[in-house]
Give the backbone structure.
Amino acid sequence: MATYPFTSALVTGASSGIGAEMARLLGEAGVPTVLVARRVDRLEEIAARYDGFEVLEADLGTADGQAVTAERIASAAAPVDLVVNNAGFGTSGQFHELDIDRLAGEVELNVTALTVLSHAALTAMVPRGRGYLLNVSSVASFQASPGLGVYAATKAYVTSLSEALHAEVSSSGVHVTALCPGLTKTEFQDHSNTSGLAARVPGIAWTSVEQVASTGLADVAADMTLSVPGVRFKTTVTASAILPRSITRWVCGSITR
């Protein structure tokens, strides 16, 4: 069983996938955790397994959902030590053929909500001189991804912002980390219309939810700027910084096509 330095946590998008696995790891480690998502029934099922768990129903794609979650993060009566910005979704397809309202919602959740909650977290943590912020990004943040253009662009924002915040608060005792997983089988594929990837990409190329969640929690505890689970994806990130962007665009487009 892993042990963590966190005394309390808040995880968004905690009803499934990486968020639910982080909730499990935190629960088994005895870390009281606030679970945030729209699907309150799933949150209550998870919360019932562990002592000190709390459920917060919020749609982070709305200003009201962002505000109520930011207010919980800012609570002085029940302070949150670790904030995990995991909520997000993607949209697969040719940009000009996609629904613009869905794309706007994707930007709202992946960028605006994460920005609001990151600000709330650091506003509370920096004066205390302690805290942990883990923003879930993607290896897609390191290159343009034809067929997943808006998703990759939002994750590029997440990675860049997290790197900047890590540098800003490095001397304050607060840790900020961008978790950048590669291909990971979750409900994301169904919601983003990329479920066909499972048939086209060999199993060895996929990272497990367990590995992603455990790596992210360990790396934010260790004050890593970037957390990239799996050797193959660390290599991918390194290659994306070396290879011409025309080649990385072609490779990404071939995968998502």
User: Anything to note?
Assistant: The first helix runs from residue 17 to 28. The two ends are 40 Å apart (CA to CA). The CA atoms of residues 54 and 102 lie 30 Å apart. The beta strands are 9-12, 33-37, 54-57, 82-85, 131-136, 174-179, 226-227.
